[in-house]
Each structure stands twice: as C-alpha cells, then as structure tokens.
Design brief:
By secondary structure, this protein is mainly β. It contains two helices and 13 strands. Strand 9 and strand 10 form a beta hairpin.
Length: 213
C-alpha cells in the first residue's frame, strides 16, 4: 500500500509540473520580467514624428519599415537601464538601427544605436554600437563590427543591455560590443527603429524589454 501511494504521488507531481502555466499580468508582463513592445497586430505603443516620411505597417504579424528616412519611437521615453531585445531582418543593401535612450525628434535622433546593416555601402555592420562625431579612435575599436555576421533577409536576434554607462550588444547570443561610455552620452530616452533610406526594408517580428535596476 505504501509503495502504491508513493507511485500515485509521483504521477501527480509530474502532471502538475507538465501543466503549470506561465503567469502573465494584465500589462503583458511575464513573471521573468519581459514586456512585449510589439503586439503583432498594430502600432500600439509606438509613434513616429509627424515630419518623418517613413512608412510603418504591420504585414502578416511583422512590423515593416519602408520609404524615406524616419524612425518609429516607443511611446515611453524614460527607459534608463534595461535589456532590449529584437528579432529582425534587413534586405540586401538596406540599412536600419535599433535605437535606445533616444530623443523623440525628426531626422536622425540623438541617442545610442545598435546598427542593423548587412550589405549597404556603410562598412559598419550589424552588431555595432554606431559611433558619433565625438567618438575617439579607441572608442571606435570597441564599438564597430566590420564583418558581416548575418546575411541580408536573414532573421537574427540583437540584444542591448544598458546599465548606467555600460553597454553590451549581443548578436544571436554572441557578444559583439562590451563598451563603457566614459562620456556618459545618454542616460535615458525612447526606443526606436530606424528606416534609413528609400530602398531599405527593415522587418521586426519581436521586440521586448526587461527593465533593470
């Protein structure tokens, strides 16, 4: 009898583990802290500047950017420390970027940019932290990826982990940038997706964030 009860208990425990659900709050926030930024249906939670001419639409569950230069910004503009992850692809000769701590403005906004570019004329490739005019030669060495790590029209995962002035970029799980910004250029701001120019087509099928202390 004792052995039979023990077996029943083991079976019950296995069934409990197998069907235990992942709890999600009303805000779409999973227990592990990830919040989905793109719902796969529309542009809820995102906005573009009224002076930007880029076209943003959802096609078959994917966010697609085409047309002239422009950026699609998160509604929130106070992201400071976070893990920001997207699944994206860029067309042949296309150019885009995964912005963070960005300012909501027309044109090319101030902020950090994780580059998205496989084959455009710009030699700075996907996985880079894009430099600005204030970037020193030593900083460029730590920020720029010149090798093609993903092919055009190939889905990839790019992650940005930003805590204070420490910025890490990962491409398909591999760290490509580990940078300490001693200038502390940007402390907080919006997320944004870049549509760089006519002819570029950027696609995003997932965007999520986990805010950090």
């Amino acid at each position: 009898m004792k052995q039979r009860n023990w077996i029943k208990g083991l079976v019950f425990a296995c069934l409990f583990v197998a069907v235990e659900p992942v709890l999600v709050s009303e805000e779409g926030k999973a227990e592990d802290g990830w919040v989905q930024l793109f719902n796969g249906n529309d542009l809820t939670g995102w906005k573009k500047h009224p002076d930007d001419k880029a076209k943003w639409e959802v096609v078959d569950g994917t966010l697609v950017g085409t047309g002239p230069a422009g950026h699609l910004f998160s509604e929130r503009g106070d992201y400071a420390n976070f893990h920001f992850r997207i699944e994206a692809k860029i067309n042949d000769k296309g150019n885009s970027g995964q912005y963070f701590r960005a300012t909501y403005t027309k044109g090319f906004p101030p902020g950090y940019e994780a580059q998205i570019n496989s084959t455009s004329g710009d030699p700075i490739r996907t996985g880079s932290l894009y430099p600005d005019q204030r970037t020193s030669d030593n900083e460029r060495k730590a920020m720029i990826v010149r090798d093609q790590l993903v092919k055009p029209d190939e889905w990839f995962t790019q992650e940005v982990i930003a805590v204070g002035n420490h910025i890490v970029i990962k491409l398909n799980g591999k760290t490509t940038v580990d940078f300490l910004d001693e200038r502390q250029r940007y402390a907080k701001g919006h997320f944004a997706i870049q549509q760089h120019n006519n002819g570029s087509v950027v696609s995003i099928r997932k965007a999520e964030v986990k805010e950090l202390p």
